[in-house]
Amino acid sequence: MARKFFNGTVKSVKALVESLNSFKVPGPEVVDVVVAPTFLHIPAVVDALRPEFKVAAQNSWVKGNGAYTGEITADQIADLGLEWVILGHSERRHIVKESDELTADKVAYALSKGLSVIFCIGEKLEEREANQTQEVNARQLQALADKISDWSKIVVAYEPVWAIGTGKVASPEQAQQAHAEIRAWLAEKVGKDAAEATRIIYGGSVTASNSKDLAGAADIDGFLVGGASLKPEFEDIIKAAAK
Ligand code: PGA
Question: To which pathway does this protein belong (predicted)?
Fold first, then answer.
């Protein structure tokens, strides 16, 4: 599974969609490719993108339609025909200061509207240096487990905060260790079947050149790609994810 998301102008988003449409990549039976434009660009992307690519929102509100000026609800995202939303991205958690609990409530609400959720977790640099990676991941996962019991529409995205947009990718060994621990956590707290079925994708400075080695790790099931998703090399990342 590969991911993509971008900011952009009307013009640059159009160019990105044209580039994506020219990719020769395996079909959705092999790899899900989900692109997450900003809300403003979603309708144009949905209209122009080849239908085998799916479109995700980058966020959704914790409740349904109501007086929440400036927020966009899962109801509206589903109404537009979208199947996916990204929740708990580190920029939401650490810049906008969304708590574990709010994030979990958002996920539960999005699931209740039939959306699939890319649920992002991951530790900050000082937490890794203090050997707290699994503790942080487990805390963020537990907050969600307190709110949901069905994980079939969850993709867990492990994104160490220190690796996002920094060019400092986790090594395949570091990422594999975190993914294996997340899967073990799922097996213990949610169940063996959920642990096997849940896709755990890695994000943080993924490029075409590091994606092959990362994809070779047993518990890495795909990627959440930021910067490199805006470049032609995204095609190679998709191919690497389609292992
Ligand atoms: P990056 O971004 O691939 O540029 O590190 C990842 C992300 O923002 O989730």
Answer: Carbohydrate biosynthesis
